[in-house]
Structures are given as structure tokens and as C-alpha cells.
Amino acid sequence: MENLISLVNKLQRACTALGDHGEESALPTLWDSLPAIAVVGGQSSGKSSVLESVVGKDFLPRGSGIVTRRPLVLQLHRIDGDREYAEFMHQPRKRYTDFAAVRKEIADETDRETGRSKQISPVPIHLSIYSPNVVNLTLVDLPGLTKVAVEGQPDSIVQDIENMVRSYIEKPNCIILAVSPANQDLATSDAIKISREVDPKGERTFGVLTKIDLMDKGTDAVDILEGRSYRLQHPWVGVVNRSQQDINKNVDMIAARRREREYFSSTPEYKHLAPRMGSEYLAKMLSKHLEQVIKSRIPGIQSLITKTIAELETELNRLGKPIANDAGGKLYTIMEICRMFDSIYKEHLDGVRPGGEKVYHVFDNQFPVAIKRLQFDKQLSMENVRKLITEADGYQPHLIAPEQGYRRLIESCLVSIRGPAEAAVDTDLVRKAMSETHELKQFPTLRVEVGNAAFESLDRMRDESKKNTLKLVDMECSYLTVDFFRKLPQDVEKGGNPSHSIFDRYNDTYLRRIGQTVLSYVNMVCATLRNSIPKSIVYCQVREAKRSLLDHFFTELGAREMKQLSKLLDEDPAVMGRRTNLAKRLELYRSAQSEIDAVAWSK
User: Fold this and answer.
1) Which domain of life is it from (predicted)?
2) Greatest C-alpha distance within the chain
3) How far apart are CA 277 and CA 177, in angstroms?
């Protein structure tokens, strides 16, 4: 069981070292889930004397006004032998055997954090005391509740202290040690008042009654100690601390404990309560109770740790890796992000990610539909056919077939295919790939430059693709497929009836037949281009984009200096700070997981 208190001690120290003080923040907190005993009391309630009696050493700062201005996490470790020493977490290699020096260091460390302005701070001081005269126990000494600010303190100090105390004791894992003086009316006790507000049923509260020996003659605290005046789920414990005269005379704490035992055993009113009175009994009872609470909370803490580790890792992955400091590291980071973008872009084209089907949709739907929508009525109208045929014949009418007329008619039709052919090239997935490359979101300037480089590269490939696509159209215009015309049915007259006038060759029936022939040829060419243009686009644009989308950017990137590379990795400072804090918190939770696992295996 002692391992459990030691475990919580280690976790509390790790929390403080890595910045988890339980305050409200955007980060998950382990501190709030750890069972702890918070010592609460008003000024002059005897709170410090109770702690010193439990420890058996005079080590806490004393004085007028608010002396405790930071939480003191006091971890007691029972050891064998006769050595007694103390260690501060902020001085890990220094061991104190003089407890007067411990008192001075507590005051000095408080001033380091708060200055000498008598302000308070939620950052705890961790003090471990090793002694054969203590039980394994952890206590958190909180600033004493007060009703009036002293000179040099802001008026808000009263509320600030109450808020700090409340932030500890309102947590369900906190055990409240409410210290009240017996020589004052319990109804006015600051500790009982605030404890009742956060723990109305008294399930987490232990009442400690001090200064019993200073009560007026003829009065006693039996009703309180037996739970009749104010009932708690746990029994009240009375203690008799050293008087101010004893403190001034440096009365030994062991002797004070002996006198305390003698007081309760010899005073008639308290004799029947003596076995469960005194600072020694209080320490043993708190240690046992703390062990039980820790044991009951461990499964829940393990679940919380596992869940939080997964959440922290997920967010760290989303935020990306931290930026390297050297030029080589920065260049490597940029290249890796660019490769990720390039890989995602290829996955879109290859169908691993959605989006590549849009390219096929252009080839299989948009381009064929655009060709079908082409209207050749104007080019193949009776007037236009007659006009082009007669113009092509010139002064010498054609003898057999109007070859030049056919060429001009076909060319006028095929030129209109250039529009759909060019439109088929205008497809890209750069923006989609950029939005899915989370690492680019981390660096806005790099995102812009990579996007610009990709678009410029695609523009070059698109221009080349357009040239080749239009060349395919121009090829069809420049050379007609002779076999198509050879297979056409021939006139019986082989060009006409010689008995008729030559101008009969330009009659409507004849010209209509020419128009139909041209339309058939153009449809054949369209069917050919429907297959060849997608091949040209894939070869000149899609294939090249997969092979060398960012090659030009990589070449230019290698020549940049450190300052230019740093500008590309212009991460938001808030994101950098968030990543650092998350990494520290993840380190804390992993350490906690290891510590708990070690205790579990040791059992």
C-alpha cells in the first residue's frame, strides 16, 4: 500500500515539473485527478503547527499576515535508520539536514515566484521530508483564509486566496483537512464554512480542532469531537500544539508530542477520546485513508491516462512535427511536405483517392458531348456548299469530283472541333491535393509557394498538351483519309451526263450529296479524335504531372539560403507554443502510465 502513496508523490512531482498545476487551461490536467489532502484553515488557526506536529520538525515560515503564499506539496517518506533530511524538487541535488534552512528556502522560493509584493501564486513548491518518525503521507498546505488584506497587498487578495483554496478542495479527488481553533465559535470557522460549500455531506472532510488547551475554563470541545455540534462522515481529531512560548524556547517536537499524549490521557473530559486524539493519530489515520482513496481511484486514473495519451498524440499529429533549426533540417522538412503533397496528388490521379475519376469524366462525357453539340448546319448549308464548291473550282469546273471543294468544306468543319479539344485539357486536382495535405496548413507561405509552383508547372504541361491536341486536329485537316472516298458509291454517269450542261453539276441534289458525304467524313474524324485526344492529354499532361509536377520548384529550392527557407516555414507562434505544451503534457502522461504499470507489476 505504501507504494501507492509513493506513486502519487512521483506523479505530483512530474506534474509540477512539466507545468501541470491543475489550473484551468486548454490542456488536459492529470493533477486534478490525483488524490490529495489539502490543509485548509484561517490565519492563526494553528494550521502550520498541525503540519509541523505531523512531521515532527519546525520547518514552516512564521510571521504576521499571510505567510503561505504558494501551495506547499509536502511529501513525507518513512525511512529506516536515524537520518532525517529534506529535498526540494527545484533543487534536486541538494539535501537539507538543517530544517531552519528549509524554512528559509520556502520563503526564498516563494519570493522568486511572487516577488516581495506579498502576492500569491498557484505554482506549488514541492518539499519531500525523509524521516523514521513520519508516516508515508502527502499534504498540500494552502494559504490561510483571511478577511482583510494587509499592507502591500491588493484588496483582491482575500478573494484570490479563497479562489485558490476552492480550486483545490472542490475537486472530487481532494480530501479536505479543515483546521479550526477550539477557542473560537465553530460557526465562524473559515475552514468549516468553505468545506461545507464544496462538500455539504462531509464525505471528504476531516475536522481538526486545535488550541483545545487554550479554551476558557469551564468549557470543553467534547461535543465537537464527538460529532454532536457539527457532524462529519469522518471523526474529528483534536490536537494540542506547542504554545508560542514553546516555539520561542525551541521545545523539541518529540517532547511536544509526548506532552500532547499526556494532556489527552490526563484530562478527564478527553480521557475516553485519548486513543484517537493527537497529531500522531491524525497522521496515521490520514495515511491509511489516503491509501484507500488512491487504491479506489487507480483504475479511473489509468483509463484517463490511456484516453488522454491517445487524444494528445492525435492532436500532435494534426499539428505536425516541430521545425528544425538548421538549414539542412528546414530544407528536409520542406522537401518532405512537398513529397507528401505530390504523393496525394498522384493518389487522386490513380484512383486511390477520389478526384481522378473527374479526368475520365471529361474524356468519357464532357468531350464527347461537346463534339456532339457541334452544329455543322452552317458549314454544310446548301448556300455554303455551293459557294465553297464553285469558289474551289475557279474558272475550271471540276471534271469528276470537286476535290478542292471537299477539302474546304471538311476543313471548315474540323476547325470548329478545336474548341472542345482545348477545353478537354483544362483539368487539375492541385487544390484538392493541397487541402488534403495537412502539413501544408501548418505553413501558409509554403502552401502558397507550392500551390503556385504546381499551377505554373501544370500551365506549362497544359500548353504543351494543347499544342499536341490541336496538332491532332490540324493533322486531320491537312491530310484526308483517301480510302473513305474510294468506298463511296459512284454515279452511273461517272461524273454526270455529258449531254447535260456543266452547270447541272451544281444542282441541289448533287450539292446535297456532297454535304452528306462531308458530314459522314467529319463524323468519322470526330470518332477518331474522341479516342486520340484523351491519349494525347494523358501523355503530355497527366503523365508528366505524375513524373515532374514539382521538379522545377525542387531545383529552385536547393539554391535558397537559410533566411528564405525560414520564411517558408512561417508557422503560427500560437501553434508552436501549443505543440510544445502538448509534448510536455504527453511526456507527463506517458511517465504516469509507466509509473502505474511499474506498481502494478511489482504486486
Assistant:
1) Eukaryota
2) 156
3) 15
